Amino acid sequence: MTILDCIALFFLLSAMAALPSISVMLVVSRTLSGGVSQGVMVCLGIVAADLLYLLLAMFGLTMVAMWLEQHRWLLQIMAIIILVLFSYQLWHSSYRHAAMATSGKKTSLASFMAGFTLTLVDYKAIFFYLGILPVYLGSSDITLSSLLMLLSTTAIAVAWVKLAYVLLANHVQGAVVLQKSYRFMSVILCLIALWLTVDMVLSQFN
Known about the structure:
Strand content: under 5%
Largest sheet: none
Order of helices and strands: HHHHHHHHHH
Distance between the termini: 39 Å
């Protein structure tokens, strides 16, 4: 894999990461309610899931990919529970106490797992890493250097876009604006949880 290939992949991943999605909504909502640290933890979870899919695509771990697909409902349930909890927390958050209420190691782990599980059930990620990327890579042999290049390119491309959303959300000023943002993002997260629930139920009939 050449440097030009990595550059092209970098811009492709950056463009996809910048598209409005449930992961972007989650990053913004956690930043608004818990500050930069929680937004960063969500970003780390998203990047970890992207790297997992990248490894699955590169090494053709079809058994693991099939397991993830067969047990997608379990990941969806985890994501739904986390989204509902975050939505409830956002709705009842206040400007003064939001950051205090969302501090701690448990909350940071929950933010990481939210980013991780939501990315695992994201059709966009599945379609790209298990559909487009293998075609993009072709039949070229995977060497250690190409592996490191792909992992670093993916991590940087996804991380910088999501962190940009963290910084943008962190610059929202004013108690009234923040309170409205909390309520708005709470509704958005609730709608995403509802969409995942409907999708999970419908998939059982297909």
